Amino acid sequence: MPDRTLTEVAPPRIEYREEPCKSALTRVRGMFFGWSLNPYMGCAHRCTFCYVRNFEQRADRPSGEAYGRSIRVKTNIVEVLDVEVRRRGWRREGVALGSATDPYQPAEGGYRLTRGCIQVLSRSRTPFDIITRGPLIVRDVDVLAEASARVPVTVNVSVPTLDDHVWRNTEPGTAPPRQRLRAVRMLVDAGIKAGVGMAPVLPGLSDRPEQLLEVVRAARDAGATHLWTGTLHLQSGTREHFLEGLARVWPEEAVRYASLYRGAYLDRSVDQPIRARVRRLATEAGIADRRARPIKPPPPERQLVLL
Fold first, then answer.
1. What is the pLDDT of residues 113-168, one digit of tens each?
2. CA-to-CA separations, 171 to 55, 122, 141, 174, 259, in angstroms, rounded
């Protein structure tokens, strides 16, 4: 009998809405970065576990099966960002790209808004982090390398699992995980600090010791400069959609998840051993001690001084 799957039907048709934005940067509190930057709203990757579904539900937008079928493209975000970082009061605090949508989802192939934003941040000497599941990021190795010579730049490529069945049924719109690992190798070889985010780990689906070890070893072989992990959390909006898919594909896990997730977060007695195992594996693999190859700064005539 074939495995149950959520990906036997054709992917949904996606509508792209070109809408200008009034502001580019969004203030963030309580995180390691001060600002977030999202050239798109909505994500064609449609991961079943995506925490952004919670934000969408609170905004009275689709958070279930319809999420990711309509993408807002902020057509003027590069110009707006350029104005914002030139202001006298801009303190060059860290900016995160990819906190509410993937900056390298398919739309970026044509619109190139993320690329433009990277160039603006680099010229203004603003440090930034990127998190993505999109191997399209290798297209921008040139601007990322140039930015890395000016300011701290960190790329986090999300690879929660290498299990084909789990990937296909929880990340239906994403590129295969090993394509993402090849992207890590290309970025690191270009001198860019690029690591792997093993998140979210799914209890009972992708947390077996051999599954975790497989990802850590693959990250090591790809040259990852760092590796971090996190387990699934299920807030309203995400919770309903994820559990519906779980019941269809892994019905035997549905009852267990109802017990594990009485609230939004996994109990520490389950969460902490997973995190500790991954930390130990990463240390044993030597990932924690790696550094990207240093990049020489650009010549003085190419450096921009903001007055």
1. 999 999 999 999 999 999 999 999 999 999 999 999 999 999 999 999 999 999 99
2. 19, 31, 25, 6, 24
CATH class of 16-292: alpha beta
C-alpha angle 77-33-196 in degrees, rounded to nearest 5: 95
Q: The dihedral of CA 117, 288, 273, 177: what is its sign?
A: positive
Return d(Cα 277, Cα 296) in angstroms, integer.
37
Q: Which residues contact 78 (CB under 8 A, 6 or more apart)?
A: 113, 116, 117, 119, 120
pTM score, two decimals?
0.90
Residues 234/264, Cβ–Cβ less than 8 Å: yes
- Which token pair is 303? 């450096």
Identify each DSSP E strand in the chain by its residue range: 15-18, 25-27, 35-37, 40-41, 70-73, 95-97, 128-132, 153-158, 194-201, 227-231
Beta strands in 146-259 (DSSP E): 153-158, 194-201, 227-231
Name the pairing type of β-strands 40-41 and 70-73: antiparallel
Closest CA to 221 of 188, 193, 251: 188
b/e per residue 25-41 (b: at least 16 CB within 10 A): beebeeeebbbbbbbbb
The token pair at 65 is: 């099966």
| The token pair that represents 226 in the structure block | 């760092």
Number of H helices, E strands in the chain: 11, 10
Cα gap 46→34, rounded to integer Å: 26
Interval 3-53: pLDDT, tens = 445 544 456 789 999 999 999 999 998 878 889 999 999 999 999 999 999
DSSP-derived 3-state class of residue 179: helix
Q: What are phi and psi of 284, to 5 degrees?
A: -65, -30
Residue 201's closest CA among 225, 183, 227, 173? 227
